[in-house]
Amino acid sequence: MSAGAPVGGGCRSAPVLKERGQREVFCGLTGIIWLHRKMQDAFFLVVGSRTCAHLLQSAAGVMIFAEPRFATAILEEGDLAGLNDAHDELDREVARLLERRPDIRQLFLVGSCPSEVIKLDLSRAAERLTETYAPKVRVLNYSGSGIETTFTQGEDACLASMVPVLPATEARELLVVGALPDVVEDQMLSLLRDIGVETVRCLPARSMEAGIAVGPNTVFALTQPFLGDTCAALERRGARHIAAPFPFGEAGTTAWLRAIADEFGLSDAAFAAATDAPRARAARAVAQAAEHLAGRTVFFFPDSQLEIPLARFLTRECGMTALEVGSPFIHNAIVGPDLDLMEAGPVISEGQDVDLQLERARALRPDLTVCGLGLANPLEAEGLTTKWAIELVFTPVHFYEQAGDLAGLFSRPLRRKGLISSLSGRLEAAE
């Protein structure tokens, strides 16, 4: 399918159902699990409770004898009651950490629900510790608390905290923003080189020595739709956002690359030479998985902020019909290009009142429901087929080579349900 506007018009101007009520959200601290793998010289010190530590250990599956690049500075009862000076305690923990781990170049102090409740000023702590350990170690802070945010906003807060301290530059450069698995990032950089983009930087970089700088001649493209604060921080530094659909599937990837090529005035011949072969591979892979998706309906609960680009992919490239596309937050400047390419029809909702949304899902009985872990099992018990939204964040899904895998993540639950129904039917017939 082409990346042109849908015949029936897009969804950018569609009314948005805004809900504010009980939400089902996952903790923003989980972003550390992919960020600590990406930034090889960084360490994430969560200032929180034992519950925070258990969450991270469980999410990461870290063996007890491993040396991960994250830890928790445990707030004990005395800290929470104000009996101890939490700043002195934190300084001691940081000193012990940096003495034991001299390889650390970037230290993130990550706020959690407990540290926010007792109003521990981690920004002041980061400034004080930077004065102590600079220039060898850069100390930054951000909040990963799940009190008011969804779980992918942990990455957004982390990257946004890095932008103000990036060096200034006058060079015209492309900055690609959003954490990607190394193999996917390498594929992306190869594609950008092949279409003719000379200098590309990535935020986050694999190390602090990557030479990332930002200025009025910097243009940036997002790979993740949940980076609203990072986008705003870069614009405050004078950088300009290249608006584009997100690189999910063949059409999304092509449109994302095309927007960058147009920004740099690159030739159509170079673009075609670089993209024709991977486009064809991606289209074949998506078509194979889409055999199980075409004509089916899908309902998105708000979870990761990936919902709008994924709904565009499923409806435009896989032949599905979206009934409702819910997202925790909708930034029109960021996801607008994806809304433009989505056929009018689905309810577009922002925020959540989980009871009301469950009522709508039960009434519509979609073929596939994309939701968080807390809703999946109850909905499965009611006969609805579900896909865990969190899996779409932890799995490589961007760009051409992952397009078939992305479609497969959605087709697999439907195929499994079909196989189970078929097997049940044969067993009943045999009896």
Automatic annotation (TrEMBL):
InterPro entries reported for this sequence: LIPOR_BchN/ChlN (IPR050293), Nase/OxRdtase_comp1 (IPR000510), Protochl_reductN (IPR005970)
Database matches in SUPFAM superfamilies: Helical backbone' metal receptor
Cofactor(s) required for function per UniProt: [4Fe-4S] cluster
Domain (Nitrogenase/oxidoreductase component): residue spans on this chain: 27-382
Superkingdom of this protein's organism: Bacteria
Pfam families to which the protein is assigned, alphabetical: Oxidored_nitro
Molecular function (Gene Ontology), one example: oxidoreductase activity
Catalytic activity of the protein: chlorophyllide a + oxidized 2[4Fe-4S]-[ferredoxin] + 2 ADP + 2 phosphate = protochlorophyllide a + reduced 2[4Fe-4S]-[ferredoxin] + 2 ATP + 2 H2O
Enzyme Commission identifier(s): 1.3.7.7
Binding locations of [4Fe-4S] cluster: C27, C52, C113
Cofactor note: Binds 1 [4Fe-4S] cluster per heterodimer. The cluster is bound at the heterodimer interface by residues from both subunits.
Pathway: Porphyrin-containing compound metabolism; bacteriochlorophyll biosynthesis (light-independent)
Keywords: 4Fe-4S, ATP-binding, Bacteriochlorophyll biosynthesis, Chlorophyll biosynthesis, Iron, Iron-sulfur, Metal-binding, Nucleotide-binding, Oxidoreductase, Photosynthesis
Function field: Component of the dark-operative protochlorophyllide reductase (DPOR) that uses Mg-ATP and reduced ferredoxin to reduce ring D of protochlorophyllide (Pchlide) to form chlorophyllide a (Chlide). This reaction is light-independent. The NB-protein (BchN-BchB) is the catalytic component of the complex.
HAMAP family xrefs: ChlN_BchN
Subunit details: Protochlorophyllide reductase is composed of three subunits; BchL, BchN and BchB. Forms a heterotetramer of two BchB and two BchN subunits.
Family: Belongs to the BchN/ChlN family.
Official protein name in the record: Light-independent protochlorophyllide reductase subunit N
Organism for this UniProt entry: Roseovarius aquimarinus
